[in-house]
Amino acid sequence: MRWFNHLSTRVLIGIGIGIILGTWVPEWGPHYKLIGELFIQLVKMIIPPIVFCTIVAGVGHMSDTKQLGRIGGKALLYFEVISTVALVIGLLVALLIQPGIGLQGQTAGLVAPEGMGPVAHHGFSGFLKSMIPTSALGALSGNDMLPILVLAILMGIALAKMGEAGSPLVKGIERVSGLLFTAIGLIMSLSPIGVMGAIAYTVSKFGLSCLGPLGKMMACSYATMAIFVLIILGIITRLAGIRILALIQSLKSELLLVLGTSSSESALPSLMEKMERLGCSKAVVGLVVPTGYSFNLDGTSIYLSIAVMFIAQAYGIQLGWEQIVMIMGIMMLTSKGAAGITGSGFVTLAATLYALPGQPLPVEGLALLLGVDRFLSEARSITNFLGNAVATVVIAKWENAYTPTGLIDV
C-alpha cells in the first residue's frame, strides 16, 4: 500500500469518488458543495500571514546579495526578465487557447458573488489608495492582498537596511514562514476530501461534460511549461554555450525527487551540490540558487497567468488590457516568495485573485482548479527547478565564474 502514501494518488482517488458520487447521488449536491467550500476557506484563512512572511524574508535577504554586489544585481535582473517572459507566455497561451470558455455561464457549479460582472474601473488614484493600508494590523487581518504586499516589501527593505542587526529578525520570520507552510501542508493533506466535494458538486449539477475544460486547462499548462523549458530556456542555455537536454540529463535524479514530492525545495541542497560539480563557482551557486527559489519561479508564473485567465473565462468576465496589465503587475509581486512547496502555487493564485483592485475575480473560482492543482503542482515544481538551474549556469557564465566540465557544454 506504499502507493497510497502519495498525496497525488489520494487526490486521484478523491476525483474518482467525486465523479461517482456526483453521478450516482446528485441530490446530495449541496453537501458536496459544503465540503469543497470548507477546504477553500481553510486555504483562505492562512493566505495573509504566508504572503507577508515569505515576502519579508525574501526581501530581507537582499542584504546578502549586496555582499556580492554585481552578481546579485545581475541575478535579480535575470530573474525579473525571465519571470516576466514566463508570465507573458502563459497569458498569450490562455488568450489563444481559452481553456475556460467551455464553462462560461456555468462556472463549474460555483456561483459568482452577487453582482459579479466585468471588472469595475476605479481609476488609477483609487488603485494607489487601495495599496496603502490604513494600519499594519488592519492589512494583515483583511482579505486585500495589495496592502499586505506593500507592508511586506516595506518591512523587508527595512530589515535589509539593518544589515546584521536585522538578521535575527529575518531568521525568526523564516521560522514563522516554515510554521505556516507546515500548516498549509496539513491543510493540503485534506485536499483529496476537498477535491472530492468540489468534483462531486460539479458533476451532480452539470454532468461529466463539465470536466472537459479542466482537462484542457491542465494540458494547456503542461504544454506551455514544456515549451518554455525546451524553447525559451533552451535558447538561453544555447547562447550561454550549454545544452539544455544535457543539463536535464545531469539533473535527472533531482528531477525525480521533485516529481515525487511535487516540491522543488526538496531538491535544493542536492541542486547546489550538483551545480558546483557541473562547473559553477561556489559563490554564484550559494547566491543564485537560494535567491532564485524566491524570485525566479517560472513555472509558478506560467501557472498563475493561465489559471487567472481560465477563471475569468469560466465566469464570463471580460478583462480589458488595462486590467490584464494590472494583473500581470500583481502576479509579478505575488509570485515572488511562493516557496517551492506543494500547494504554494494554489495559495499564490488565491492571493492574486484577492489583490485585483476594484471588484476581484471570484475566489470561489479556486474550486475550479482544486481537482487538478496537485498534478499541476508537479509541472510547476519541475519548471521552477530547471529555471533556477539554468539561471545558475547563466549567471556563472556571465561572471566568468564557470569552469567547463564537458558534461553540459556545447
Tell me what you see in this structure.
- With 410 residues, the protein is mainly alpha-helical.
- It has a single domain, classed as Proton glutamate symport protein (Orthogonal Bundle), CATH 1.10.3860.
- The chain is built from 18 helices and no strands.
- Helix 1 (7-24) runs parallel beside helix 9 and helix 14 (282-295) runs antiparallel to helix 18.
- The longest helix is centred in the last third of the chain and has 33 residues, at 366-398.
- The chain is globular and about 65 Å long.
- Mean pLDDT is 77; it is low at 107-124.
Ordered list of secondary-structure elements with their pairings:
Blueprint: H1 7-24, H2 29-60, H3 62-67, H4 70-97, H5 123-131, H6 136-141, H7 145-162, H8 167-188, H9 191-206, H10 212-239, H11 244-250, H12 252-261, H13 268-277, H14 282-295, H15 298-314, H16 321-334, H17 344-355, H18 366-398
Helix pairs in contact: 1-9, 2-7, 2-8, 2-9, 2-17, 4-10, 4-14, 4-15, 9-18, 10-15, 10-18, 12-18, 13-14, 14-18, 15-17, 15-18, 16-17, 17-18
Output the radius of gyration: 21 Å
Low-confidence segments: 107-124
Strand content: under 5%
- The CATH topology: Proton glutamate symport protein
Which class of secondary structure composition applies to the elements?
Answer: mainly alpha
How many individual β-strands? Answer: 0
What is the terminal-to-terminal distance?
45 Å
Helix content: over 70%
